Fold this sequence. Notes:
Elements: H1 3-35, H2 38-67, H3 69-85
Helix pairs in contact: 1-2
Amino acid sequence: MDRDTQWRQQRGTMVGFILAGILAAGTMAFAFMACGGYAIYATLVIVGIGAMGSFHYLLWGRSMMHEVADERRAEELRRQLEAEDWPRGEDDEPHDFRRF
Length: 100
């Protein structure tokens, strides 16, 4: 990836985050006007649930991914060796039995 492509990709990511922030701010402003101060409490609950989910992923999800990484590599190696054991030739192609 050249420097220009990398810069464009980073710029696209930044634009996405900025637009998401503007949308979130607009949604919060509307919720505050519609519900008053209760919107702040609802937002805190949502942020708290998101923080708990992130903590759960960091605590369990990543460790479980690392635990099964060896099994995943072994399975990929088994499939690769199995594919090498059975080389496909012209005789291995499926036959068309409709002509019989």
